[in-house]
Amino acid sequence: MSHATKILGLSAYYHDSAAALVIDGNIIAAAQEERFSRKKHDARFPENAIRYCLGEAGITMTDIDEVVFYDKPLVKFERLIETYLSYAPNGIRSFIAAMPIWLKEKLYLKSTLKRELAALGKIKITELPKLLFAEHHQSHAASAFFPSPYNKAAVLCLDGVGEWSTTTV
Protein backbone atom coordinates (compact mmCIF):
# COMPACT_ATOMS: atom_id res chain seq x y z
CA MET A 1 0.00 0.00 0.00
CA SER A 2 1.46 3.38 -1.00
CA HIS A 3 1.88 6.22 1.44
CA ALA A 4 -0.49 9.17 0.97
CA THR A 5 1.40 12.48 1.05
CA LYS A 6 -0.04 14.76 3.73
CA ILE A 7 0.79 18.47 3.59
CA LEU A 8 -0.32 21.03 6.13
CA GLY A 9 -0.28 24.60 4.80
CA LEU A 10 -0.11 27.52 7.23
CA SER A 11 -0.58 31.25 7.20
CA ALA A 12 0.06 33.17 10.42
CA TYR A 13 1.45 36.22 12.20
CA TYR A 14 0.32 38.83 9.67
CA HIS A 15 -3.46 38.72 9.25
CA ASP A 16 -6.13 36.08 8.61
CA SER A 17 -4.22 33.10 10.01
CA ALA A 18 -5.35 29.84 8.47
CA ALA A 19 -4.55 26.19 7.91
CA ALA A 20 -5.23 23.81 5.04
CA LEU A 21 -4.68 20.07 4.79
CA VAL A 22 -3.91 18.48 1.44
CA ILE A 23 -3.63 14.71 1.08
CA ASP A 24 -2.35 13.35 -2.23
CA GLY A 25 -3.21 16.63 -3.93
CA ASN A 26 -6.78 16.77 -2.60
CA ILE A 27 -7.89 19.50 -0.21
CA ILE A 28 -9.30 17.69 2.81
CA ALA A 29 -9.96 20.69 5.03
CA ALA A 30 -9.21 24.40 5.28
CA ALA A 31 -10.17 27.01 7.85
CA GLN A 32 -9.32 30.48 9.07
CA GLU A 33 -8.49 30.89 12.74
CA GLU A 34 -11.05 33.68 13.12
CA ARG A 35 -13.86 31.13 12.64
CA PHE A 36 -12.86 29.59 15.96
CA SER A 37 -11.53 32.60 17.89
CA ARG A 38 -14.26 34.97 16.68
CA LYS A 39 -11.54 37.63 16.35
CA LYS A 40 -11.78 39.24 12.88
CA HIS A 41 -8.52 38.90 10.89
CA ASP A 42 -6.94 36.91 13.74
CA ALA A 43 -3.18 36.84 13.14
CA ARG A 44 -2.16 34.41 15.87
CA PHE A 45 -0.81 30.91 15.30
CA PRO A 46 -3.81 29.01 13.81
CA GLU A 47 -4.00 26.36 16.51
CA ASN A 48 -7.76 25.82 16.23
CA ALA A 49 -7.73 25.78 12.42
CA ILE A 50 -4.96 23.15 12.48
CA ARG A 51 -6.86 21.02 15.00
CA TYR A 52 -9.93 21.24 12.79
CA CYS A 53 -8.00 20.16 9.67
CA LEU A 54 -6.31 17.25 11.43
CA GLY A 55 -9.63 16.20 12.97
CA GLU A 56 -11.39 16.20 9.60
CA ALA A 57 -8.82 13.70 8.33
CA GLY A 58 -8.66 11.73 11.59
CA ILE A 59 -4.89 12.18 11.83
CA THR A 60 -2.35 13.72 14.18
CA MET A 61 0.67 15.98 13.66
CA THR A 62 2.97 12.93 13.45
CA ASP A 63 1.04 11.75 10.36
CA ILE A 64 1.92 14.95 8.45
CA ASP A 65 4.77 14.70 5.93
CA GLU A 66 5.42 18.41 5.41
CA VAL A 67 4.29 21.72 6.87
CA VAL A 68 4.50 24.63 4.42
CA PHE A 69 4.44 28.26 5.52
CA TYR A 70 3.06 30.84 3.05
CA ASP A 71 6.00 33.22 3.09
CA LYS A 72 9.80 33.43 3.21
CA PRO A 73 10.45 35.75 6.16
CA LEU A 74 14.22 36.07 5.67
CA VAL A 75 13.75 37.17 2.05
CA LYS A 76 11.12 39.69 3.18
CA PHE A 77 13.53 40.99 5.84
CA GLU A 78 16.20 41.45 3.15
CA ARG A 79 13.72 43.51 1.10
CA LEU A 80 12.85 45.69 4.09
CA ILE A 81 16.50 46.39 4.91
CA GLU A 82 17.42 47.16 1.28
CA THR A 83 14.38 49.41 0.88
CA TYR A 84 15.10 51.32 4.08
CA LEU A 85 18.75 51.77 3.06
CA SER A 86 17.75 52.98 -0.42
CA TYR A 87 15.48 55.69 0.98
CA ALA A 88 17.42 56.66 4.11
CA PRO A 89 17.08 58.87 6.02
CA ASN A 90 13.42 58.97 4.93
CA GLY A 91 11.38 56.29 6.63
CA ILE A 92 13.46 56.28 9.82
CA ARG A 93 10.32 56.32 11.99
CA SER A 94 8.93 53.29 10.15
CA PHE A 95 12.30 51.54 10.41
CA ILE A 96 12.50 52.18 14.16
CA ALA A 97 8.95 50.86 14.61
CA ALA A 98 9.46 47.74 12.45
CA MET A 99 12.90 46.53 13.57
CA PRO A 100 12.08 45.48 17.17
CA ILE A 101 9.30 43.21 15.87
CA TRP A 102 11.61 41.68 13.28
CA LEU A 103 14.56 41.30 15.64
CA LYS A 104 12.48 39.80 18.46
CA GLU A 105 9.99 37.66 16.51
CA LYS A 106 10.01 37.40 12.74
CA LEU A 107 13.64 36.42 12.25
CA TYR A 108 13.02 33.46 14.56
CA LEU A 109 9.82 32.36 12.82
CA LYS A 110 11.12 28.87 12.02
CA SER A 111 11.83 28.21 15.70
CA THR A 112 8.52 29.75 16.74
CA LEU A 113 6.56 27.61 14.29
CA LYS A 114 8.35 24.45 15.40
CA ARG A 115 7.68 25.23 19.04
CA GLU A 116 3.97 25.94 18.38
CA LEU A 117 3.51 22.83 16.19
CA ALA A 118 5.25 20.58 18.72
CA ALA A 119 3.09 21.94 21.56
CA LEU A 120 -0.08 21.49 19.50
CA GLY A 121 0.85 17.92 18.59
CA LYS A 122 2.17 17.15 22.08
CA ILE A 123 5.38 15.87 20.48
CA LYS A 124 9.07 16.70 20.55
CA ILE A 125 10.44 19.19 18.03
CA THR A 126 12.57 16.36 16.61
CA GLU A 127 9.38 14.42 15.79
CA LEU A 128 7.92 17.22 13.66
CA PRO A 129 7.47 16.88 9.91
CA LYS A 130 9.69 18.82 7.53
CA LEU A 131 9.00 22.59 7.66
CA LEU A 132 9.19 24.42 4.32
CA PHE A 133 8.70 28.05 3.31
CA ALA A 134 7.06 28.96 -0.02
CA GLU A 135 7.24 32.33 -1.72
CA HIS A 136 4.28 34.56 -0.90
CA HIS A 137 2.96 34.85 -4.45
CA GLN A 138 3.66 31.19 -5.13
CA SER A 139 1.32 30.43 -2.22
CA HIS A 140 -1.41 32.63 -3.68
CA ALA A 141 -0.98 31.06 -7.12
CA ALA A 142 -1.01 27.51 -5.74
CA SER A 143 -4.25 28.16 -3.84
CA ALA A 144 -5.91 29.18 -7.12
CA PHE A 145 -4.31 26.67 -9.48
CA PHE A 146 -4.29 23.36 -7.62
CA PRO A 147 -8.02 23.24 -6.80
CA SER A 148 -8.84 24.26 -10.40
CA PRO A 149 -9.77 21.69 -13.04
CA TYR A 150 -6.83 22.71 -15.26
CA ASN A 151 -3.54 20.93 -15.93
CA LYS A 152 -1.94 24.16 -17.18
CA ALA A 153 -2.77 27.78 -16.42
CA ALA A 154 -1.31 31.23 -16.03
CA VAL A 155 -2.03 32.74 -12.63
CA LEU A 156 -1.84 36.50 -12.13
CA CYS A 157 -1.18 37.66 -8.57
CA LEU A 158 -1.73 41.31 -7.67
CA ASP A 159 -0.93 41.92 -4.03
CA GLY A 160 0.18 44.81 -1.89
CA VAL A 161 3.09 42.85 -0.48
CA GLY A 162 5.27 39.82 -1.05
CA GLU A 163 8.91 39.18 -0.41
CA TRP A 164 9.86 41.53 -3.29
CA SER A 165 7.03 41.36 -5.80
CA THR A 166 3.62 42.95 -5.78
CA THR A 167 2.59 41.53 -9.18
CA THR A 168 3.57 38.13 -10.58
CA VAL A 169 2.47 35.70 -13.28
From TrEMBL:
InterPro entries: ATPase_NBD (IPR043129), Carbtransf_dom (IPR003696), NodU/CmcH_Carbamoyltrnsfr (IPR051338). It comes from the Bacteria. Pfam families: Carbam_trans_N. The keyword Magnesium does not apply. Residues 6-167 form the Carbamoyltransferase domain. The keyword rRNA-binding does not apply. This is Carbamoyltransferase. It comes from Nitrosomonas aestuarii.
